[in-house]
Design goal:
2 strands; mainly alpha; 72% helix; single chain; 152 residues; two-stranded parallel ribbon
Length: 152
């Protein structure tokens, strides 16, 4: 299943289960495009794993219990906060990785879009659950050659 498919399934499952109907400095090292793509894809895979872990923890905590609407909204917010935190860590890792020569602005724009998505997710968890919050950032990542960031 693609990451986008996983995200949709993840969001749909979260909504069903719960019963509820990035920034920094532009100063970074220069890396080769191949190293950027390899390192960046690894960062994205690790981010998805962190997000899955947050989701699994929330599901585990609520398994076998009846969830009220208020509890569902709280769990939804907890999930969005966990995702936003993982995105903030991802941004830091990309800043440490650096950008290919001549692509510094594009990488900075991608990271800014991810930061905006994290903020939007915290403010409105449904933006994450519907994949709206990170769509622009995912598109920028794809333009840079990253293949594992789609659907974060």
């Amino acid at each position: 299943m693609s990451k986008r498919g996983w995200l949709v399934a993840f969001g749909s499952t979260a909504l069903g289960l719960l019963g509820i109907g990035c920034g920094g400095s532009n100063e970074s090292a220069t890396v080769s495009k191949a190293d950027f793509i390899s390192g960046g894809d690894k960062i994205c895979v690790d981010t998805v794993r962190k997000q899955a872990s947050v989701y699994e923890e929330i599901v585990s905590e609520s398994k076998g219990t009846e969830i009220s609407a208020a509890d569902g909204k709280a769990a939804e917010q907890e999930l969005a906060d966990g995702v936003a935190s993982s995105i903030e860590e991802m941004i830091d890792e990309f800043e440490e990785l650096g950008a290919p020569a001549g692509k510094e602005e594009e990488v900075a724009t991608m990271l800014e879009e991810y930061e905006n998505g994290a903020e939007e997710s915290r403010a409105d968890p449904r933006a994450f659950l519907t994949a709206e919050a990170f769509a622009a950032a995912d598109a920028k990542a794809k333009e840079l050659g990253l293949t594992k960031c789609d659907g974060i």
